[in-house]
Structures are given as structure tokens and as C-alpha cells.
Design brief:
- By secondary structure, this protein is mainly β.
- The chain contains one helix and eleven strands.
- The chain binds zinc ion (2 copies).
Length: 141
């Protein structure tokens, strides 16, 4: 089926599939995402948990925000360390897939850029997307 998209970690021990388009496509420029993904920003495809099906064992590590005190859990491959997704206390029922792990992320639509206050100066945000200096909620759709 064409509305099923596949993805996985670099070593192949963990594979997953997602159903349809994400509720929202987000680029997050927060310092936490920069660090946890060893990158300039995070590209996140947020799905309802029931629309993400994972095969293989994932390790989950909990992080507590030193700002809000709320938890965030990162799911990654215990073999190769690829971060595959995260869930957050403030997003019940949602799973944010790390979009770089999709086999083909080209179809993904980015709706917004968040935490632009900590965006690295050499990252240029395209025109026509919503931007938020800090976080933003999941839009109702
Ligand atoms: Zn792996
Ligand atoms: Zn972030």
C-alpha cells in the first residue's frame, strides 16, 4: 500500500512502518534535539502511536527536561545507537519519528520550524513555513 512508509536504524536490527502522512512535520532547532541527534536540528514526523509499528527491540531512555521537569523518552536501536523516535509527557498518544530514519523521507512535508531562538546561524529557514521562537502544540486535524 502506498500510504505505508518504511524506515529503520542504520544496522537494520530495528525496522518500523508508519501509516499515512504525519499529523505534523516539524523541524526543531532546540538545543536538546541538536545534542541528542548530534545534528543542527531535528526533523520530526509526528504520528499517533497506533500508526507506528516497530519490529525489533528498541531501547528507551528517559530524559527529564531541566526547564519543565517533564519526561521525554527516546527510543533507539541498542545495536547501532540510531535514534528512531521519541515520546513526550506533553504529547500523550503521539510518537515523533526521527524523519531521517525513513527509507525515503523525500515525500515528507515540513509544516513548521520550532525553537528558532536557538537555531544555528548558518541554517536558513525557507519562506512560507510557520516559525515559532519556542515550542508549539500539535495542531488539531
Ligand atoms: Zn541498529
Ligand atoms: Zn527539539
Amino acid at each position: 500500500m502506498s500510504d505505508i512508509h518504511h524506515g529503520g536504524c542504520v544496522c537494520g536490527a530495528v525496522r518500523y512502518r508508519v501509516r499515512g502522512n504525519p499529523v505534523v512535520g516539524t523541524v526543531c532547532h532546540c538545543k536538546f534535539c541538536q545534542k541528542r541527534l548530534a545534528s543542527a536540528f531535528a526533523v520530526l514526523a509526528s504520528y499517533k502511536i497506533e500508526d507506528v509499528e516497530t519490529q525489533g527491540e528498541v531501547k528507551e531512555v528517559e530524559h527529564r527536561s531541566d526547564v519543565s521537569g517533564r519526561w521525554l523518552k527516546m527510543q533507539f536501536c541498542p545495536e547501532c545507537g540510531t535514534t528512531l523516535s521519541h515520546t513526550a509527557e506533553w504529547r500523550p498518544g503521539m510518537r515523533a519519528v526521527a524523519a531521517g530514519t525513513l527509507d525515503d523521507p523525500t515525500w515528507l512535508r515540513i509544516d513548521r520550524h520550532i525553537w528558532t531562538q536557538s537555531k544555528l546561524p548558518w541554517v536558513v529557514i525557507p519562506e512560507g513555513v510557520e516559525t515559532y521562537p519556542q515550542g508549539a502544540g500539535i495542531p488539531a486535524r
